[in-house]
Design goal:
The chain has one domain: Winged helix-like DNA-binding domain superfamily/Winged helix DNA-binding domain (Arc Repressor Mutant, subunit A, Orthogonal Bundle), CATH 1.10.10.10. The protein is 45% helix and 5% strand. It contains 4 helices and 2 strands; from the N terminus they run H-E-E-H-H-H.
Length: 76
């Protein structure tokens, strides 16, 4: 897993400090948007030939870790 997550980089001078793939100007959210618009990983790699399947897996893993937190209901 750490090998995948090492593909996710942040740089305050690149894409406003948002998480990107291997220091390129492609944000994790861009990959998630492409997938949510029904592009397959193969189609993404055709459009972005410098991308690897592990870059897409890393984007998904990063997103899952960011959203895996408990929600506490303070109104109960």
């Amino acid at each position: 897993m750490n090998n995948l997550l090492s593909r996710i980089t942040t740089d305050p001078d690149l894409c406003g400090g948002r998480p990107t793939i291997r220091g390129m100007r492609v944000r994790v959210v861009d990959i998630l948007d492409l997938l949510s618009n029904e592009l397959t990983p193969e189609q993404i790699m055709t459009e972005l030939p410098y991308f690897e399947l592990d870059d897409i897996k890393a984007s998904l893993k990063y997103a899952s870790l960011k959203f895996d937190h408990p929600v506490i209901n303070l109104n109960s």
